[in-house]
């Protein structure tokens, strides 16, 4: 096919301009492969989810048995189920890496504010989808996790009770709840896919950020074959890690209590969500007041939407921001501590450590984040004078 005919064909022209010859900053490293890895994880989750839905029964009397049926009787059902269960963890691993890479290299700064916020919205929908998927096996942790988390809505003044009953579809977590969660869990990945396309459209409008934080037009090359190869290598690394868990430690990232059928009369000794919710669960538990805990947990995610607004720095990359770089690694450590605290019992000293870590988390975004930018500006002005 000649070049002119290629360019005249709308679909081929789109592929050429947005995939093959898309101008990409020449200095991108492997940390820019987390976005494509997240896309691969999303595709795996949708495909395996469709096959699981063919055999799953969203009824409280049959849900647990249908999962066991998939594992024991369906051809390669165990593989599909473990791919889906561990795929959720892989999805969140690469998404967290993607977010923290954006925080380090200033991907929230103009002109990428809308791009950053679209990513935060995708992250919120991922968390909702992941939570509802956790409920579907209808094991002990599924049932009690759903009971505890949905009950948080009762903290909303005046209408909290009505919201909880609406979520449950009755007066307790029961069949109506499971049906609603299954329907939404099946639907939301397609909504996420649509938002991912919007995210990519915004990315290709403003261009990719880079480790130096310079304009992409300064020095760029076509995406194919240079960064296609990098993404391919990252893909093989992801598959290796994915396979390690699926074939050797398929239950390492789950909870043993979820292999016990749900029993409303027996409360587990320690109710915990999936590992990727633990930092925010720790923030929830660190606030003694129920309403305050719910507000803090939601604010811990929504605060990411404020970064393009409260940013005061003119320098994107942390490579040229030593003060911010130090604060950033404190934030990473703090987030890991919150994840550890989230799986510990609510008692001394874990409660106090969680409260300190929660305080630093909000202090970083609301105080250190804008303050460091202002200090940097003053230092630059002082050096010029």
In short:
With 385 residues, this protein is an all-alpha fold. The chain contains 15 helices and 2 strands.
Structural class of the secondary elements? mainly alpha
Number of structural units classed as domains? 2
Number of helices: 15
Return the CATH topology of the largest domain: Cytochrome Bc1 Complex, Chain C
Total number of beta strands: 2
So what's the oligomer here?
A: single chain
Shape: globular
Rg calculated over all Cα atoms: 23 Å
What is the CATH level 1 assignment of the largest domain? Mainly Alpha
List the helices and strands and how they pair.
Elements: H1 3-8, H2 10-20, E1 23-25, H3 34-53, H4 63-72, H5 77-104, H6 113-135, H7 140-151, H8 160-168, H9 175-206, E2 220-222, H10 226-248, H11 278-286, H12 290-302, H13 307-310, H14 322-342, H15 350-384
Antiparallel strand pairs: 1-2
Account of the protein in words:
The protein is mostly helical and 385 residues long. The chain folds into two domains: 29-271, Cytochrome Bc1 Complex, Chain C (Up-down Bundle); 277-385, Orthogonal Bundle (Helix Hairpins), CATH 1.10.287. Helix content is 66%, strand content 2%. The chain contains 15 helices and two strands. The protein has helices spanning 3-8, 10-20, 34-53, 63-72, 77-104, 113-135, 140-151, 160-168, 175-206, 226-248, 278-286, 290-302, 307-310, 322-342, 350-384, and strands at residues 23-25, 220-222. A two-stranded antiparallel ribbon has the order 1-2. It is globular. It starts with a helix and ends with a helix. 31% of the residues are buried. The mean pLDDT is 91.
